Amino acid sequence: MSKFTTITPQMAFELMKKHSEISILDIRPQTEFEREHIQGAENLDYNGHQFQSKVEKLDKEKKYIIYCKSGVRGGYFMEKMKESGFTGAYNILGGFAAWKVSKLPLGKGLMILFSIFLFI
After folding, report:
1. pLDDT tier for residue 112 given thresholds of 50, 70 and 90
2. H-type helices in 1-120, by residue range?
3. Which residue among 5, 49, 98, 102 is least packed, with the fewest CB closer than 10 Å?
4. Angle at 27 between CA 22 and CA 39, to 5 degrees
5. Are 28 and 57 in contact, with CB atoms under 8 Å apart?
6. Which helix (H) or strand (E) is 90 found in, with range?
């Protein structure tokens, strides 16, 4: 994958089902993530302390699906990934709001703990 593109929630869901190696990054604030998120997502708070240092630890060769609340920050982040040398990423059109409206699977709880340990 060497592209950066915005895709519909349904397309993202199909990619997740077909490619289990894709990482899902939720860049909303931690409190929003803890309430609910896309199943299997890791939180990487776009406005959080140490965001940039966490991004630098991501594998640039890995595939990513990213989302925010409405898709705008996800688009900005996707561009930053491109500029930083990542090989490709997908942004979910309409973000988490569109995912929920599409009635796709959600997760709840503290996957954030996994994310914290991943970036230490």
Report:
1. very low
2. 9-18, 30-35, 51-56, 72-83, 95-101, 112-118
3. 49
4. 50
5. no
6. strand 89-92
Residue 11: which residues within 8 A CB-CB, separation 6 or more? 90
Rounded to whole angstroms, how far apart are CA atoms 51 and 104?
Answer: 27
Instruction: Please give the model's pTM, rounded to 2 decimal places.
Output: 0.84
pLDDT per residue as tens digits for the range 38-89? 999 999 988 877 777 788 889 999 999 999 999 999 999 998 899 889 999 9
Q: Minimal CA–CA distance to 78: which of 24, 5, 2?
A: 5
